[in-house]
Amino acid sequence: MRCYMKSLPKNKIANIYGIAILLLILSAVLGVLLGASGISLTDMLSSLVKGDIESPEVKILLYVRLPRILSGLICGAALAVSGAVVQGVLANKLASPSIIGVNAGAGLAVILCSAFGMIGGWSLSAFAFIGAFLTVMLVSIAAKKWGASRGTVILMGVALNALLGAISDTVITFNPDVSVMSNDFKIGDFSSVTYAELIPAAVIVLITFLVLITLSNELDVLTLGDENAKGLGMNTSLMRVVFLLMSALLAGAAVSVCGLLSFVGLLVPHAVRRMAVTESKHLIPLCALFGAGFVAVCDTLARVVFAPYELPVGIIMAFLGAPFFIFILIRGKGGHRNA
Predict the structure, then answer these.
(1) Rounded distance, CA 184 to CA 169, Å?
(2) Is residue 5 part of a domain?
(3) Residue 12 lies in a domain
(4) pLDDT tens digits for 217-238?
(5) Is residue 338 domain-resident?
(6) Containing domain of residue 31, as a range?
(7) Of 72, 155, 176, 254, which has the fewest Cβ atoms less than 10 A away?
(8) Tens digits of residue pLDDT in 150-197
(9) Which distant-in-sequence residues (6+ apart) come within 8 Å of 239 by Cβ?
(10) How far is Cα 69 from Cα 299, in angstroms, rounded to an integer?
(11) Domain tally for the chain?
(12) What's the 3-state SS for the chain?
């Protein structure tokens, strides 16, 4: 099954890839170089070459900056691609994991996981995926069953966000020992990421990304609408579930590491599409590259702008994302124009 969509000239798409890769490399380098401690990369590498693994410089590099920059890259890529997939499946450019409640569903599952004493590793990622998947399926089924408009889907997501947040707060009220749902987790933060949390999420994100790349043509067909997709021989119900499952895997893995980081899945896919990138075989990898670089840069800013004080990266995202969401909401009249 093939879907022929308008393609960009090869030189233009190559330039866009070049910009995305440059942003990724620059963000990673800055993330390693800059920090509130003021220790330079030269000092870190010097201690590392000497084999002084117990030195403060090496510990900061290996256990603070490196896991933090890796988690920013991985979570940024996961949330951006998850947003692109959700927007394609729901045919709504205003949809994103944070807006329609997917992140909140994953967050509630993480709280419940923590309440039962499972606070890291594969169990955390698995619970986050289950919460994200149930939420996105609920929104999708409700929208299809009741024939909800695109604007209504967003309002449903906002209401679901509030409901899931209230349930999360209730659990915390009756179980104050659930420390995972701190303010940093609610906002989104990388300051306490460990390799034990990062590795399972990274594996899930990588595998899911590779599967999505192989299914990129099917995603293009699905975005044409149910009637057109069925005319091309697609089982739309099955493929919709498959893509929502992939989106939930990505969002759940990211939430298990960084918390309820907002707006990445809205900002990045919208920006990439503004570059006239519509084919999923390019949209997905470009969203991953730009999403990774964007989140890593924002996290570095959150660390150094107010040093020695540090902001959760979610605050930076909210300052950028909320005005952008309002702008495209007004410009697109609730998502109906050019959706």
Answers:
(1) 14
(2) no
(3) no
(4) 999 998 887 788 888 888 888 8
(5) no
(6) 21-332
(7) 176
(8) 667 778 888 888 899 899 888 888 877 765 556 677 788 888 888 888
(9) 218, 222, 229
(10) 8
(11) 1
(12) CCCCCCCCCHHHHHHHHHHHHHHHHHHHHHHHHCCCCCCCHHHHHHHHHCCCCCCHHHHHHHHHHHHHHHHHHHHHHHHHHHHHHHHHHHCCCCCCCCCCCHHHHHHHHHHHHHHCCCCCHHHHHHHHHHHHHHHHHHHHHHHHHCCCCHHHHHHHHHHHHHHHHHHHHHHHHHCCCCHHHCHHHHHCCCCCCCHHHHHHHHHHHHHHHHHHHHCHHHHHHHCCCHHHHHHCCCCHHHHHHHHHHHHHHHHHHHHHHHCCCCCHHHHHHHHHHHCCCCCHHHHHHHHHHHHHHHHHHHHHHHHHCCCCCCCCHHHHHHHHHHHHHHHHHHHHCCCCCCC
CB 197 within 8 A of CB 257: yes
- Other Cβ atoms within 10 Å of 12 Cβ, number: 13
Averaged over 21-45, what is the pLDDT?
81
Dihedral angle over CA of 302, 306, 312, 314, nearest 10: -60
**Residue with structure tokens 């401690």?**
37
Half-sphere exposure of 337 (CA within 13 A, CB side): 7
- Which pair of structure tokens corresponds to residue 224? 């044409």
The pLDDT tens digits for 35-54 are: 766 666 677 777 777 776 77
CATH number at residue 250: 1.10.3470.10
**CA–CA distance, 127 with 108 (Å, rounded to integer):** 9
C-beta of residue 1 within 8 angstroms of C-beta of residue 218: yes
Maximum average pLDDT range among 178-182, 242-246, 333-337: 242-246
Rounded to 10 degrees, the C-alpha dihedral 154/158/160/166 comes to 180
Residue of 287, 289, 311 whose CA lies nearest to 300 = 311
The answer to whether residue 138 sits within a structural domain is yes
Contact of 128 with 253, CB cutoff 8 Å: yes
What does the block give as tokens for 222?
């699905």
pTM of the model: 0.86
Are 322 and 54 a contacting pair, CB within 8 Å? Answer: no
Residue with tokens 């924002």: 298
Altogether, the residues listed in the chain come to a count of 339
Amino acid (one-letter) located at 108: L
